[in-house]
Amino acid sequence: MSSSSGDSSSSSSGSSSSSSSGDVLEHMEFEVFGKVQGVCFRAYTQKEAK
Q1: Is residue 27 part of a domain?
Q2: Which parts of this chain are annotated as the region Disordered (predicted)?
């Protein structure tokens, strides 16, 4: 149900590092593309009412 506009590529990158106690920490980044519903609903209804 999602539609993307513009660049349809998404990127994710991850890196990990170890702390002194041996635990592994991860870092991830995501870009999500899609249609947000409900945005400008008030402006749309006011325009339609006029």
Answers
A1: yes
A2: 1-23
Residues in the chain: 50
Q: How many domains does the chain have?
A: 1
| 22-43 pLDDT tens trace | 889 999 999 988 887 777 888 8
- State if pTM tops 0.85: no
Half-sphere exposure (Cβ direction) of 11: Cα atoms closer than 13 Å:
2
Distances (CA, A) of 38 to 26, 27, 34: 34, 32, 13
**Is 33:4 a contact under the CB 8 Å cutoff?**
yes
